[in-house]
Amino acid sequence: MSDHGGDDDHGHGDKPWVFFAVDCFFLITQFFVITFKVKSDELALPQRLPPGGTSPGKSSALDTKKKLSVHVSRVNGVANYEFMSKSVNLQGLNDMLAGSVGGGQEYQVRVSYAADVPFGDVLAVFNSCAKVKIAECGLIPLRGNN
Amino acid sequence: MSKKKGMKKPEETKVEVDMIPLIDIIVLVLMFLIIVGDTAAAANAIQMKLPRADQAFSDKELKEKNVRLEGRIVIQMANKEGKYMAVINNKSYELVAGGSHKGLLDYLDEQVQWQLGKGLAKKDSVGALDIPVKLRLPEEAPMRDVERVVMTCARVGLVNVQYAAEMHFKK
């Protein structure tokens, strides 16, 4: 009786390297499958800087929109927003903007901030403005920003 | 046993193509091309944690809203040795107070003049340009550095900014 270690016609008993090739193929495939990351589409929040840039003195003569001021700071590691003489959190700011702004096109927002406030906190203001259709948001630069 | 001297029967060679190694090689080559192609495309994008904004849109959605994307200049901020710098097309520029770094201003001005010269951009009565600028700014970057980037754009007349944001579930 012949020992059929493998079927020579349909298998590769006479070519043992094929098994190693297939093993390598699967190992490499597993590596790429495990490390594969779906690239997510990056989003963008469109905004328009007020005419004249961020300098309030330069721009005041150039536009007639009503100006709203928001000051961003950090209190105990949490973002704090001062708007219309009130200190609120982000949700509070959203509610106040929704309540006080009728037509967004008539308004322009100027954002001031403490130097070490992270950008994410200020972008949240731009995002809130976008919700109420305010398209122009400018920054009030820090004095003596060195 | 008889051996015929001087005569050798030609062997019949059967050509068989082993498919499995062929498939291995083709798949490996394809994977290589996919990985390298994707890596090359993403080479310019600096890895950073972008802020979240639920009012942000993808480029496709921005196009549908008639927001200009052609000729867009992408400015990124990178933290190099504890200092934030502006990066445009893999070239770094220092961030200077008042947005007055000459190299960065000159570069942006050059881009603006080129687009104006080719008729690809327009300037309105107050000097504002319609060239879009995409600002890829990390979420944790301090505002003292971020404002320098924004002021630089404003100085050159680039007022149509698009702040890059991370995907956020829209309410």
Distance between the termini of chain A: 91 Å
Multimeric state of these chains? heterodimer
SS element count, helices of chain B = 4
**Per DSSP, what share of the residues of chain A sits in E-state strands of 2 or more residues?**
15-25%
Name the pair of protein chains with the most residues at their interface, and give those residue counts: A-B, 50 and 58 residues
- Strands of the widest sheet of chain B, in order across it, are 3-2-1-4-5
Q: First CA to last CA of chain B: what distance?
A: 91 Å
How would you characterize this protein structure?
The complex is a heterodimer of chains A (146) and B (171). By secondary structure, chain A is of the alpha/beta class. Chain A has a domain at 56-139: Nucleotidyltransferase, domain 5 (2-Layer Sandwich). Helix content of chain A is 32%, strand content 25%. Chain A contains four helices and six strands. Chain A has helices spanning 17-35, 56-59, 90-100, 119-131, and strands at 43-48, 66-75, 78-83, 86-88, 107-113, 136-139. In chain A, strands 4-3-2-5-6 form a five-stranded mixed beta sheet, with helices on one face. In chain A, a hairpin with a 2-residue loop joins strand 3 and strand 4 (86-88). The N and C termini of chain A lie far apart (91 Å). With 171 residues, chain B is an alpha/beta fold. Helix content of chain B is 35%, strand content 20%. Chain B is built from four helices and five strands; from the N terminus they run H-H-E-E-E-H-E-H-E. A five-stranded mixed beta sheet of chain B has the order 3-2-1-4-5, covered by helices on one side. The N and C termini of chain B lie far apart (91 Å). The model of chain B has no long low-confidence stretch (mean pLDDT 83). Chains A and B meet through helix 1, strand 1 and helix 4 of A and helix 1, helix 2, helix 4 and strand 5 of B. Strand 1 of chain A pairs antiparallel with strand 5 (158-165) of chain B.
